[in-house]
Amino acid sequence: MAKQYRVSWISSEGLRRAKSALAVALSLTILLGGMGVATWKAYGWYQAWQQRDDYIGDGDADVQVVVSPGQGWGRVADTLMAADVIKDPSLFEDEALTLAPNGPLQWGTWNLKTHLPAASAAKMMTDLDTNGKPKNLLVVKLTIKEGMRLADMAATMETQLGTTQAEFDAAVTALAADPASFHLNAAATANAANLAGILDPWRAAYSFGPAAGSIAEGYLFPATYDIFPPINSKVTDVFTMMADQFNKVATDLNLEAGAAALGLTPQQVVTIASILEVEVLPADQPKAARVFLNRFAANMPLQMNSTVDYGLGRSGLAKLSTADAQKDTPYSTYVHAGLPPTPIGNPSRAALEAALNPAEGPWLYWVTVDLRTGETVFTDSVDEFNAASERFHQWCAANPDVCK
């Protein structure tokens, strides 16, 4: 915005001196002669004159002002004047440029006050907290838990961002139609053309929404994200942020080369990591990752309860019945050989690292014998596996509230 130049019969320096002199004169009058009607009127006139170009004081009502992408201090000044935060845009722009020459620190919603002096408004928009973040910027922390399924993110976003299920489903559908525009990792779309015929009938049979078995499952990184409403608070914005973070982590871990070294595809590694996230504690994940490879080599079915739960729309590693295990969903690793068609959640960095760096060992089985502590037994012996399974059943009998 071009500066506003004002024509005045007195220079700005002279104006400041005149204001100061008048302030002193009025103060003396009040002290020596009392607060008469004429003096009171003169004092009111003085205050109005002093604020001819700028407000004074600490501001009045709370107000939120949105700074949009691409706005420099000039356009911000116009926005603030329209919101009655400041009186003179050029005064604000000068102050702001002095404090932050490169422009606004962040686009988003700023918590300000009406009737602020230009210097105060500029300071409020450039003040940083102890973490180096803007003090007066509205920030919503969106936390996506490690291992969370895509479908479960809808409720989290509704609670933390105010989005709706319809908006979420529309974003999932848009992502599937144009994954590149969301920066979705190439591994996610490796088998996309073959999945529709497998997964569409399954979704219809169980009345699942588009998030179940989505190509994005596994590739939206779980973390805490800073959201600046309304700039990046749409579901589509969040998906893109999460996909970008997954790509960063995948690059850091050298996902493609690491998968190839194990004789796997990146998609297989991400799928294994998503199962590890649900099945075992982080300390046991490298050993569990080795079980996958040993079972592949022995042509053994994986028989993972977590994949069965995903196929049935359940969570929490519910106690699995034989009938459940044998239900023919695409995710039953009791019925179908190999890995499920997609990841079953969105794995953490630790789970991805474990999948890429399996521990050395002969293990073919694991059994979590205590669901509260996560204690897990690894073995390559059928007898030891059966003994551990019996321990688990005894534990469940003693803890029926957990093993439902």
Description:
This protein is about 50% helix and about 5% strand. It is mainly α and about 400 residues long. The protein folds into four domains: about 10-50; about 60-140, Dna Ligase, domain 1; about 140-250, no CATH class; about 255-400, no CATH class. It has a two-stranded antiparallel ribbon. Strands 3-4 form a two-stranded antiparallel sheet. It has a two-stranded antiparallel sheet with strand order 5-6. α11 (about 265-280) crosses α15. The protein is elongated, with a radius of gyration of 31 Å. The protein starts with 11 loop residues before the first helix and ends in a 6-residue tail after the last helix. Residues about 1-20 have low confidence and may be disordered.
Largest sheet at a glance? 2 strands, antiparallel
SSE class? mainly alpha
Number of strands: 6
Q: Return Rg in Å.
A: 31 Å
Strand order of the biggest β-sheet: 1-2
- The fraction of residues assigned to DSSP E strands is 5-15%
- Total DSSP helices: 16
Helix percentage range: 40-55%
N-end to C-end Cα span: 65 Å
The tally of structural domains comes to 4
- Rough outline: elongated
Could you give the order of the helices and strands? HHEHHEHEHHHEHHHHHHHEEH
What keyword list fits this structure?
mainly alpha; Dna Ligase, domain 1; 4 domains; two-stranded antiparallel sheet; elongated; disordered N terminus
Helix-strand blueprint:
Blueprint: H1 12-33, H2 37-50, E1 62-67, H3 73-82, H4 89-99, E2 108-113, H5 118-124, E3 140-143, H6 150-161, H7 165-177, H8 192-206, E4 224-227, H9 235-252, H10 255-261, H11 266-279, H12 285-297, H13 305-312, H14 322-325, H15 349-356, E5 365-368, E6 376-379, H16 382-398
Antiparallel strand pairs: 1-2, 3-4, 5-6
